[in-house]
Amino acid sequence: MILCLGVAADPTFTAGLRALRRAGIAFRPVDLPSLTMRGSIRIPLERPADTVLSLDGESHRAGDFTAVWGRLVEVASAAPTAELAAASAGQTEALARILEFVPGKVMNPPLREASGFTKLLHSVVLGEVGGWRIPETCLTSDPGEARDFVRGCRAGAIFKGASATKTWATVFEPHHESRLPRLVHLPVLFQERIVGPDVRVHVVGGRSFGELIDSPVLDYRTVRGTNDYRPLVPPPEIAEGCARLTGHCGVPLLGVDFKIERATGEWFFLEANSMPCFEGYDERAGGAISRAIVEWLVTP
């Protein structure tokens, strides 16, 4: 039996539930907002695996499941009251800690991969594990340093947020120079621009599923209907590095992002997401990613 912890409004969570259902695997889904509003969690501190989740007349002991699929999406900011927001945030933190102690397999333990809270540390550390080059990068709150870095990028520069919060990459254009003084209030991540297609590699255990994305815009996630998606078998050095990342991070599922420089064919590592939204890639791959996730969850 698989315990599934997530948010019913999250399309990635529901895609995973459909994959389990198609495979005929028994599972128990728990909607986290409903657990906050109508349920309860009982945590014996001396035996975290005996934690019991109760909701709508049903109780589930965490240690009774052979595996857990957890997508602990943060929803506290959308809570209708301050009390529910506090309860939701506390519940998410408690579940993240409990998943470190359950006896079965967990995909993915939220506390394992923490480098993503700082994108520069994240790319440097994980790029070294994978054995990949990263774009020239500058994380700064100094307007002059940012200006000098951008002017030194032969193919131009991009910028994006530096924290774990979802951010969009933007091409640095001349009119952005007038905004650089704002950096003193918040550091920003600047990178040399790599001109060429994107690659997303989903890694499930040691298996890699790649997709090449050609887009008319810098950040392909910001447009629909205009991107060209093609399946891609990652080169051995990329697939092997991705498999090493899952071991290094202690999580079996990663969405790993690369850029390929069109002029040279060189691969550049961008980041690895330990809670990837895989459903669109999975649909284009004929369900291969979700089948691999199900297989990982049910394999002893």
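the 2nd protein, sequnce then structure:
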Amino acid sequence: MIQEPEAHEPEGPETDEPEATRRDAGVAESTRANRGWWDRNADEYQVEHGTFLGDDRFVWGPEGLDEVEAELLGPPQELKGKDVLEIGAGAAQCARWLAAQGARPVALDLSHRQLQHALRIGGSFPLVCADAGALPFADASFDLACSAYGALPFVADPRLVLREVRRVLRPGGRFVFSVTHPIRWAFPDEPGPEGLSVSSSYFDRTPYVEQDEEGRAVYVEHHRTLGDRVRDIVVSGFRLADLVEPEWPAWNTSEWGGWSPLRGNLVPGTAIFVCERD
């Protein structure tokens, strides 16, 4: 059962800085590491990014592309009455926006702590703590599914997630998800000029891993090239309807990790895949 977080100062990251490396990390290790990381860092994340995300906005990434203007799930007026699954929901800001349009969202996340923040903010829709690779829903339960930087960047086998999403979608359903643009893996994760020079091979799929003193992964992120993402989508039974690369808008002066106006005006930072289930 999900309960609201206790009122206390936000927790910071672990006191011992983890070692950053590139090495293999499988499905089980990635899941364990990322569940723990998001549980430990959810408070800090919501403090740092909560204002930008809002309580009930649907933002696809650090560029600030809003579903209100993008309409990647369809026109807002056509969302009424639709069953929508948000994967990697965090504090469920997107689900809250969907509910305001008259949709029936379900917000799912691997992190119990993130969902506690969703409960704190409020909403009348279900919150589900579960792995995106093993969705606890019957076949054909949803009309739409969405994921804004949720799940897909952190799983060792994205086809497990894609096939599960296809399973729970009804025929004609749509799944839209955003991830770090694959080209960013060739550059340092820095918002300034030092982040503009290629430092590694775009074709190196070795996962980025942060590990503790005993070599146990505490955070894992997986790289796929643009072609890999397209193949994953098609092999999993979807049709790729669109690929959106948001440009950095003039109004957005914020930095978010390696995302910044400087880099955003030169190289893409986010890729959004619009997938349809025939």
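Residues 8-14 have pLDDT under 50 and may be disordered. The first strand starts at residue 19 and ends at 22.
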